[in-house]
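Journal club side-thread
Mid-discussion, someone asked how the predicted structure for our own chain would compare to the paper's figures. Pasting it here so we can look after the session.
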Amino acid sequence: MGSKLKNYCLIIILFMVGNVIQANAQKKISEENFIEPISVFENAKITNVGSTTYSISEFINIEKELTFDSVDGANTNLGFSKDNYWLKFSLTNSSEKPLSLYFETGRPITDIVELHQVTANGNIFSQVSGDLIPFEERPTNHRKIIFPIELEANTTQDFYVQY
C-alpha cells in the first residue's frame, strides 16, 4: 500500500438531533450552544504504532502498553507518512434519547480511515472511508470523510480512529 496521507485537519461532531452530549473531560454540550461544529481534539489521545498493523480487537488488547499523546490542536498535521496512527476518545450521551451525530476526520485525500465505536457492553461497530474507498461504499455520500454515529441514551462509548 502506498503512502497514506496522515493529515487530519479537523475532528468535529455535528448534531442531527438536540439534547445533551458530554465528552470525556465532562465537557457538556447542549442544544443551545451547538450552532457550530464541536471539536473532540481536547479529549482525544493519539499514538503512532509505526508499520505495525492491528485489528481493532488486537489494538484494544495492547493499548495499555502504548504511549498516547495529547492532540496539539484541531488542525494537527501529521504530514505524509507510512506509519499507522490510532486516535481514541470517548463520548457520553447523558440525555434520555438516542443521539444521531456525524464525525468528520481527515482530509478528503486521506487514503483510508477506519472508525471503530465500542459500546459499553463491548460490541464493536466499524466503518471505513477515505480516498481509496469507492464513493458508493463510503458511510456517507460526501467528498469529505464523514461517519454517522448513533449514541444510545445514557451511555458512554469509546471511539478509535485508525489512519
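Post-session note: Confidence is low (pLDDT under 50) at residues 1-33.
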